[in-house]
Amino acid sequence: MSKESILIIDDNELYIDALEAILRDDGYEEIFALTKGHNVLATLENNKIDLILLDISLPDVSGIELYSRIKENKLYSHIPIIFITGHGDVKIAVEAMKLGAFYFLSKPVQPYELQTLIRCALDNSKLQREIASLKVQLQTNQSLIIGKTPAIKKVMTRIAQVAHCDATVFVKGESGTGKSLVAKAIHESSLRSKHPFIAIDCGAIPSSLLESELFGHEKGAFTGAVRKKKGFFLRAHQGTLFLDEITNLPLELQPKLLRVIQEREITPIGSDKEIKVDVRIVTATNDNIEEMVNEGKFRRDLYYRLNVFSIDLPPLHQRREDIPLLAQHFLNKYSPNTKKSFSKEAMQTIINYDWPGNIRELDHAIEHAVIISNSKEIQKQDLPSALQSKTSSPSLNFDSLYTLKEMEKKYLEKVLMHTSYNQTQAAKILGIERKSLWRKLKRFEISIPQNENPNEAK
Description:
13% strand, ATP-binding, Helicase, Ruva Protein, domain 3, sequence-specific DNA binding, 44% helix, Rossmann fold, single chain, HTH_Fis, ATP binding, globular, Sigma_54_int, five-stranded parallel β-sheet
């Protein structure tokens, strides 16, 4: 039974009753409700409130205005606020989050999502003092999450918000933007940091083996199972399991992952015994997962469970001010004893390039330059040829409007043409594995001319 008290502000009494039922099922006893906003300060004055669920559309005052009133009062500014919004109010709710709201939920609210976010918000509120010191800790733990731009600072703030609770986290961003580093930073900054951090690339393991890798198997469970194997979930017990490229998870395995999230237990292949697991799950993708959900290629219910708390990583070209810092970091990494530096021309070339492969491509480019350079200063000619020949990635013609799917296909074609259809080089620029590029070519029905790169390994 929870001692925390929650205030619901919503003009729909039936919806208040529904929210109260969800909260009482989760052990909350102290629940207050208002149907209008004008009495909120009096309610806060007369009662100890730990969290507010606020409808963004009220009859007497807007949710945004009410939020501002609460946060302007120093006595109540620490109270976390979760907005409840209708479909048409999502843009307003996003603006509220920019002002500092903890999160927002769209109606109809899913019980599990509401309960998880409330626990996360309450934990976050209790640990505000720890978060102040946590930011110092994050600077150490996020040694590769380097930057000073507002975009990357927002990412760091999101990590700090979610680190100390067990909500599932979905990290979204282009290939090479540092999704695995974010997952690692969440783990290292959490109460699970002394326990295992296990990372698995769902796209790198054959689908026929993935179930065994995740859940384990008993000896003799199938041909080749000569010994009992502990899966990734058990190996990550009490720690964090990072499922990268989650969109590559086969449809037939998705219900099993959903069940693990719901029940917190697994059943190894060949066993009839259920094993309890205590694992924090972080997932990531560079695909348009919402599109895949709409196309039936990824289960909607699983996506909702995975996307309780999301972190969006910006591409490198949107945080250009961070490029010199990152470039210097990689230079120190690959030449720790020689103290190399960049010439002005080389640094300007690095800054002006659009980095379609993001941080991973920058990492490889600096490593290449260190290998080529025979002086203490990196010159422009030491950089990869892609940077020397142009200072921006292959351009697209925006005279016509395209869907995201069409745009992705056109960009793939541009990169392939840019590399003379060298798939290994194209994959490196895109920041993906060659196997992933092959799948994309198959998906978009892009053919490679037979007379191009005949000697390249298939």
